[in-house]
Specification:
Length: 138
Amino acid sequence: MKKIVLFTLLLFTVISFSQSKKNVNYDKLSNPNPKNDLSTYLDDLVPNKYLKKARFQKNSKNIILYFNVNKEHKPFKISLSAYQPSDLYNSIKNAFKDYPLERLSIENFDRKNRYSLQIISKKGRRNIFNTRRNTRSF
């Protein structure tokens, strides 16, 4: 009986710790800027009517773009942190595929890493492209 109770307690402990959410404050880590190269690039290519439809996760004012890099240093497995309308998602994805990754200030791309990059922020009632030059890998 003691073993069952101990095992159950251990199981609940493991499950509760595995469900903890990693909360990253991208504004403090990255100092995003709506006037940097990637922000203006996306602003030129993604129609403003799509940007207005951006959806944010609960208690978040940022949308994060995730991607991997292949042998040719091209992004793939591009995804966003929150569900987005298909027109916004596809226009961001297609624009980012054509963006030269050398401009992101990454010394060495590792194909094993998944990279994250803040791309959209909510500023008051407006959604803006607000990116940073450097990325996080995990």
